[in-house]
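Appendix B, example 12.
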Amino acid sequence: MGMGEAVIVAGVGCRKGAAATDVQAAVRAALAQCGVPANALAAIATSAAKSTEAGIAGVAAELGIPLLPISQSDLKDAASGAYTRSERVLALMGVPCLAEAAALAAAGPTAQLLASRIAVGSVTCALAQSRDPSGKRP
């Protein structure tokens, strides 16, 4: 990572037991929508509760990037920057959009969403970008 380089994180949410193929498709769709190459992705983020989902972990491993579990309090702090709202996710997770909140939380305080979440099957993915002048990863 160079100095002042943008860090891009994919936030992922899913229903329990979502297939890795669906997770992969959602991540690819989000990258394509934003014109971001897969190798620009620094990490995948999800809620701590979802970080044991095999589908999400499998895609992070396949891409060779870390899977970052985001605590409930960090999700809530980041959720104010979310674009979309799901009553179901709000009821289950306490935040209006898990994918967006996770991406924002992982990308840090300077993060902005590149686009609102994309849903593929039972998986949602959102991309957030941070511009950290120190060049540190999230």
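The two ends are 12 Å apart (CA to CA). The chain has one domain: 6-131.
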